[in-house]
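Aim 2 progress update. The chain analyzed this quarter is reproduced below.
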Amino acid sequence: MKTSYQRRSDCPINFALEMFGDRWSLLIIRDIVYFGKQTYGEFLDADEGIATNILANRLAQLEEKGILTKTPSETDKRKEVYALTDKGLDLIPILLEMANWSARHDPDTGAPQA
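Predicted structure tokens:
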């Protein structure tokens, strides 16, 4: 499958980083997986304080890369609901491993040791 952008290399780690490797994309995915967030406003309320322009950009990128889908809300047509695609769901084990690694190595982690 050819990509529409210029990749830095064919390294699989590089591919992963180009798909979802920036700080904000992973936090958006985290919010969906761990906290059940679905809307722009819910993502905006994250503790990390993402700027509105960055949030809009990352949501668009994740949708373009096939990691998220966006559909109109059934209860409020002014809102859009974001959900992980199968490609996005495949990131859950990666998030779990990152959380486990951080719990082991970050003395100030908010994650439970278990």
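The chain has a mean pLDDT of 88. The domain at 12-105 is CATH 1.10.10.10 (Arc Repressor Mutant, subunit A). These observations will guide the mutagenesis experiments scheduled for the next reporting period.
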